[in-house]
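Q&A log
Question type: sequence-to-structure
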Amino acid sequence: MNYGDDVPAVGAADVPQDAYLLDVREQDEWDAGHAPAAVHIPMGQLGDRAGEVPRDQEVFVICRSGARSAQVTMALNQAGWLAKNVDGGMKDWSEAGRPMEGGGDGGPYVA
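Response status: OK
Response body:
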């Protein structure tokens, strides 16, 4: 997805292993499957929980496909954070073979 020059983006395969990864999906999506080191703050709660997001490091924002995370990335950058959208979201994360956990007995999947 292309949101123009206003939204810096990186492919799922290019997210550094030690990155601060902010997952903004809903709880059921998170439960189905997520990156092991991701921090979960649903998009709708971010206004109240923004103080939990570090300002001293780059933030990589992910959702299912990259649309919600692009909106969050723009908002964070406008508010003074240094954020990048994970283009293609968890769909591309999974397709790139990046680690996932969750999903219960059936294993992790992208909901």
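Response note: The chain is about 25% helix and 15% strand.
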